[in-house]
Structures are given as structure tokens and as C-alpha cells.
Amino acid sequence: MIASSQKHWSGDVAELLRAGDDFVLADVDTRATPGYGEDKDQAAEDLAAGAAELDEYQERLFARSRVDATNAAVLLVLQAMDSAGKGGIIRHVVGSVDPQGVALTAFKKPTPEELEHDFLWRVERRLPEPGYIGVFDRSHYEDVLIGRVRSLAPPDEIERRYGAINEFEQRVADSGTRIVKVMLHISHGEQRDRLMERLERPDKHWKYNPGDVDERELWPKYMAAYQTVFERTSTDHAPWYVVPADRKWYARLAVQHLLLEALEDIDPQWPLATFDVEAEKKRLAAS
Amino acid sequence: MIASSQKHWSGDVAELLRAGDDFVLADVDTRATPGYGEDKDQAAEDLAAGAAELDEYQERLFARSRVDATNAAVLLVLQAMDSAGKGGIIRHVVGSVDPQGVALTAFKKPTPEELEHDFLWRVERRLPEPGYIGVFDRSHYEDVLIGRVRSLAPPDEIERRYGAINEFEQRVADSGTRIVKVMLHISHGEQRDRLMERLERPDKHWKYNPGDVDERELWPKYMAAYQTVFERTSTDHAPWYVVPADRKWYARLAVQHLLLEALEDIDPQWPLATFDVEAEKKRLAAS
Description:
Two copies of one chain form a homodimer. Chain A is of the alpha/beta class. In chain A, about 45% of the residues lie in helices and about 10% in strands. The first copy, chain A, has twelve helices and five strands. A five-stranded parallel beta sheet of chain A has the order 2-3-1-4-5, with helices on both faces. In chain A, helix 2 packs parallel to helix 11. Chain A is globular, with a radius of gyration of 20 Å. The N and C termini of chain A lie far apart (about 45 Å).
């Protein structure tokens, strides 16, 4: 087990959440809390404890990259339907570590310049440098999700992209970046409740877009597109994790757990001094 | 007064810290806590309360920029001698707001490409977009600090830069960005203590660089260069604040206070809905 903050988890959490062979998205209970038997209050405590551990791992990862010849980095890819909680993950999980070690990119509708290039061009440019935790708020997967649902590219181009993504991610993983792909999964009804809350609170109106309701009609098509994504791109070097997200506290704790596992696996150590510590103490004392 | 978290401050803090006419850096007591009479424990409480307020201001600023035609943004420029605490400000003050609304840039030694352009070229590219809090960890001021101390450019070029900076910052301010320039000021002795701590703790070795001791010999030259910076570039549209930083807790609280003042001055309001809220509720309920 990775650390004391993780003591309330049971089973192999990554395995429980992973979209493996025979995975069926429609079978996932979006209100479930796989591997975690405690309640919301305990989860808040565990999240705070995990934040401290994530913080130290991040600093070690960063420190090592400054001194040693290491390419280790982490890339968290977040995908979800609107209101599923990507922002909350960034704020409450990623936001708990030093911002100096995080490289966050929110991918929007491609610009004309980006559209002139292959769909992976803009993604490549935003990969985390060694020592960083990169976070993609949406990603190249939009190009096979909305791209497919709204026919933004011809079918054979969409088809080509799954293979291109796998090759791309293989190369990224081989270069030392641990890839953690997360889909936050809420139910159609939960999304309605969350969008309704945005309409009921004036301080949330800015997050609401009438187009969100139009997208809801395409829900089954999006689910089918996600199912295909999992079948085609959940690989050993870049697995997909489907995190039930109707309970925000569970989703945050689960993503934190997955990040901690990735960092534990890298296990970055404080780098050794590249100078003579005692000699430097003397020089400094005399300065 | 801006908010309840600020109740322990007295006097016009910005005015107390501002490098105005007749400002003399050598007269600043780096252990002082201007405007704040409480101790470290109270400061920790006040910092947490201020963080919640900063968080809401940031979200309002961001929300408004998404909906209204506003250019309002904030730019925090951080300059300091090594170990003065820039990293701590970013981690503990900036790090308390949603990372999705922060644009952080750490300026390093210029790359060959950057050196081919005017010194402000790389800075212009990293200005915060509307709605963001931009943070510069070092900045264009390096070009008149280390640039001057180590003669990295001819004297007439260094001289030209002060005016260029003022014109540049005037344009940035006119476009809607509130500029807050902070120099964290520690004493020569405090720096020795902090560097010594890095030598004594293996988990801090990575932060130590033997070149730091060489730079210490240039301390008087750096202080003279800073003094000139304040005389030439502390303007109404982009004032310099010199924050005594031997006490880290004070420096963090003071910078948070300056950010809160800047945001209070912008006073961003939640944007109004650009759609018919009641009609959307019906559409959503039926979806």
C-alpha cells in the first residue's frame, strides 16, 4: 500500500477502475465508490492527507529533474461530459500541489492555426517537461469524441486517429512520462441536476451555456463514442480509468489515488548534491 | 477596508510598502512588519481567511471575462535575491486560488531565440489574458538587474531599457491589467542563514547552487541596481512595493494583501446571464 492516507482503500483500485478487456461503460454505476467503503467526511480527511503526500512526491519529482538526467513526468488526461467535475479535480486535487510543478492545459475548440496541422500537433506542444505533472483538461480525445459525434472529420480520418493516438502515447510513455487517462462518469440525470443548479444560482450562470442542453440530446452517441475510445485506446502504456463521478468526493479521492500510484511507481528520490557540501558550508559562512 | 480577513492591518499598507519619491532601499528594515501588529500565529489565520477571499475574487474576475467584454486582469511581478521567498509566495499565496485562473511564468536565462529579440519580446508573450492572474517569477527586470550588475548589455542599452519598461507597462495597464510589482527584501545575513539551511538538509540540496555564494559578493551592486529600478520604474500605473521578507509569514500576508487590493479595485461582479434563465430551466427539465 502506498501510504497512510490510502489506508481506507481496499482491493486493487487501479484494476477496479481500469477499462480493461470486456469493459462496458453502460454497466458502470455512476453513484458507486469502488474500493472505498467510507463516507464523505472520512473522504475529506483522506483527501487532505493524500494532498500532503502528493505534494511531497511532486517536489521530489521536480527536484530530481533539476539535478539528475531523468525524463520522468506524469500526464493526467481528463475527459468527461459537461459538469462531470473536471474543474473540481483540477481545483481540489491538482490544486493541492505547488503550482510551480504543474503544467495545466485546457484544450478548447481548435484555432485555425491548429486546424492546419495534424490533430496531435497542439497536444505534442503541451506535453509536460521532465519533472512536471501535466494536466490536460480535455485532450486529443475530443478529436474522436465530439469529432465523431458531430462528424467534424470524415469516418476514415476518425478511424485513423485511434491508431495514431496509440502510437503517440506509446512514444510519450517510452520517453518517461507516466500517462493516467481518466473519464469522469456521471449519469444523464445527475448532469441535469448539476446544470439546473447552475441556472438556480446567479453566481453559476456564467458556467451555463444553452448549447449544453442540445449536447444532452447526443448523450447516447457520446457514450457510444467513449465506449469505442476505451476499446481502442486503453493500453498497457496508457490505460483508461473510468471514475464514477456522481459523488464528487469519491471522484476526487479516486483521481488523487491514481496520481499517487503513478508517482509511487516512479518513486522519485531526493537528488544527491553535485557539490562538496562541507566545502560549501565553509565558503558560505565566510561570505 | 477590503474585507474581514484584513482587519489586523492598519494604515494604508500599499502606501507603507510602496517605493515612492525619496525611497531608499538601504533604509528598509528587512525584519519589520509594516502595517501589521500581530504575530505569526495570527498571521496564519489571516492568511487562510484572505485565501478564501482571494479565491472568490479570482473566480469573479475569471467569470466576468468569459461573459462580458472586459479586459481586466492582474499581473504580479516577483523579484528578489535568491532564497528571499518567491517560491513560497507562489506556493502559499498564489497556490491558494484555482490553478485554472492563474498563468504562471518563471523567466530563466534567455534562450538563443529570445536573445534574438528585444528584451520585452518574451515578456509580452506571457502577459495574462483577460480574467487571469498572471504571475512572473523574475521578469523583464532581470534585464536591468543582473543585466546591469554583470554587464550583460552595454550601458546605453541598459539605460534605454528603463524608459522602454515604463512605456511597455503603461500600455499593459491601459489595456486593463492591474500591475503589482513586488520586491521581496531580505538581509545579507538572512540569505546566509537560508542558504546554510539548504546545505544542512539533504532534501534541500537540489535548491543550492555554488554560484549562489559568488552572487553574494555582488550584493551591494545588486542593491544599487534595485535602487535605480525603483527610482526609474516605480510609476503610478505600475508601482513597486518593497516587502520586508526576513519573516516569511509577513511577506506572504503582505503580498496577499496587495493582490486583494488590486482585485478590490477591479471589483469584478458575477456576470449577468446572457440567456433566458426561466426558459432554459424548462428546456433542461424536459431534456
